[in-house]
Amino acid sequence: MHEAHDTAQSDASLPDGPVDVVVVGAGVVGCAIADALAPDHDVVVLDKSGVAEGATGRAAGVITPTLFYGDLPEVARHANEFFRAFDGTHGFEFTERRRYDYVVHDEVDTARDRAADLADHGFPVTYLDTDVVESEAPRLNLDDFAGAVRYDDAGWVDPYTLATALKRRATDRGASFYLDQQVDAVSSNTAELADGEIRAHTVVVAAGFSTPDLLGRPLPIQPYRTQCVVLEPTEVLDDQFPIGRVGSKHLYFRPEHNGDLLVGGSHDIVSDPAGVSTQADESFVKEVALTIPELVRGFGDAGLVNGWAGVDSATPDARPILDQVDDVFVAAGFNGLGILAAPIAAEAIRSQVTAETAAFDVSPFSFDRFSDSTSGFELRTTSDVGR
Ligand SMILES: Cc1cc2nc3c(=O)[nH]c(=O)nc-3n(C[C@H](O)[C@H](O)[C@H](O)COP(=O)(O)OP(=O)(O)OC[C@H]3O[C@@H](n4cnc5c(N)ncnc54)[C@H](O)[C@@H]3O)c2cc1C
After folding, report:
1. Are residues 144 and 193 in the same domain?
2. Are residues 38 and 71 in the same domain?
3. Are residues 36 and 63 in the same domain?
4. How far is the CA of 34 from the centre of ligand 1 (A)?
5. FAD dependent oxidoreductase domain spans which residues (predicted)?
6. How far, in Å, CA of 4 to CA of 41, rounded?
7. Which residues line ligand 1 (CB under 6 A)?
8. Domain total for the chain?
9. Of 58, 121, 249, 368, which has the fewest Cβ atoms less than 10 A away?
10. Do 182 and 57 belong to one domain?
């Protein structure tokens, strides 16, 4: 989790005349959309706090587009290519790392079929028995499992650095960021602030769980809280230690550059997203402390480095809305996957703003796929998706 505040603010006063595009929200998604539109649009980004101060700065940064979007192969390919192309520019780093998703005995057939299907689409995905996994990654312990699905195109990023790198490139391309600017409401061509409004030909809202409030209407989006802790093992992890997920326990983990282990999990719909604790719960820390030593060797006496919680937004089918709602463009409902999906959102929104053909079919992200836009729904966690 990043504590620093990106203080680089535009000194200029807010624009008087209409601009091409106003983006509300400077999380990773707003920054990615600004970056994608800035080459040929006059773009203004507004955020009530700072860059990556919402869910983005609290994310684990695990990047596995193939796992979560492999059923939409062109979408997954677009995200996979983005992270490799952006790596090494504007201070951004993509750390490539193999990923193993542990598979319990009664899920072997499903996991094998899914791995084979993804491989048929050209993705480097394989189902492996436990002895093979443990020979490749000796710190993993799969005693209670039948095998694992290996993704050879996974990796991780520092989400704060990704957002600020996108902001930097967007700024180089001419976008202006105005931070500490609370937007009260939007319409198809205005963003209303406490002391006036900004007019724009196009308004994009990428404000996380606050998006329905800004539009002043219900959307099939619910805020949910999720958590991370960092553990320091007695023997540091080496620089090839893989990313992992134990769906049956709703936990995932990735190494840190210093050999610690970041562990994420727990998903609870919340009614007061602004008021929830940003600390990890003691019960979650205990669960991690009990579970991880069984899965990763050398964590019996691990120390707790830190822990935190953040709030993201969920939709009924665990896919974001990237579409116009009442003539306002919306990019929200990332279901714990908005870091890896930021380039997907940027491409989908750019194609609709410019009427260009997107790199993939954007219809899976349409608003009208939800017939009942107001009712609550059961949360599908990232542990359930892609299994
Ligand atoms: C603990 C945790 C772990 C996660 N791990 C991963 C992971 O490993 N991989 C992954 O892909 N995703 C992960 N995610 C999900 C990811 O963080 C989010 O999906 C993503 O950050 C969403 O980005 P965003 O820009 O839409 O929202 P946010 O980052 O929440 O940004 C929204 C912005 O809108 C601004 N805003 C809100 N209301 C207003 C207003 N009225 N006026 C002006 N500005 C406003 C906020 O200040 C904020 O900066 C994780 C999330 C959490 C909480």
Report:
1. no
2. yes
3. yes
4. 15
5. 20-349
6. 30
7. 24-30, 46-49, 53-56, 58-62, 182-183, 206-208, 210, 214, 226-228, 264, 310, 312, 334, 336-340
8. 3
9. 368
10. yes
What mean pLDDT do residues 262-279 have? 94
Q: What is the mean pLDDT of residues 92-113?
A: 97
pLDDT in tens, 153-168: 999 999 999 999 999 9
Kindly give the distance from the C-alpha atom of residue 208 to the centroid of ligand 1, in angstroms, as a whole number.
Answer: 6
With contact defined as beta carbons under 8 Å apart, do 186 and 180 qualify? no
- Do both 33 and 43 map to the same domain? yes
Confidence of residue 3 (pLDDT cuts 50, 70, 90): low
* Per-residue pLDDT at 144: 94
Give helix 159-172 / helix 338-354 axis angle, nearest 10°. Answer: 30
- Residue 266 CA to residue 60 CA, distance in Å, equals 13
Domain range enclosing 277 = 222-314
The residue nearest atom 53 of ligand 1, judged by CA position, is: 310
CB neighbourhood size of 250 (10 A): 18
> How far apart (Å, rounded) are the C-alpha atoms in residues 303 and 85?
36
Query: Residue 314 C-alpha to ligand 1 middle, in angstroms?
Result: 11
Question: CATH code at 291?
Answer: 3.30.9.10
Predicted confidence at residue 387, as pLDDT, reads: 44
Instruction: Report pLDDT digits (tens) over 48-73.
Output: 999 999 999 999 999 999 999 999 99
User: Which of 285, 314, 343 lies at the terminal end of a domain, its last residue?
Assistant: 314
**Cα 23 to averaged position of ligand 1 atoms, centre (Å):** 14
Residue 18 φ/ψ region, left for φ over 0, alpha for ψ in the -120 to 50 degree band, beta for the rest = beta
Is the domain of 281 the same as that of 229? yes
Q: Pick the last residue of a domain from 111, 137, 152.
A: 152
119 and 265 share one domain: no
pLDDT, tens only, 203-239: 999 999 999 999 999 999 999 999 999 999 999 999 9
Q: Are residues 342 and 352 in the same domain?
A: yes
Point out the ligand 1 atom lying closest to the alpha carbon of residue 50: 49
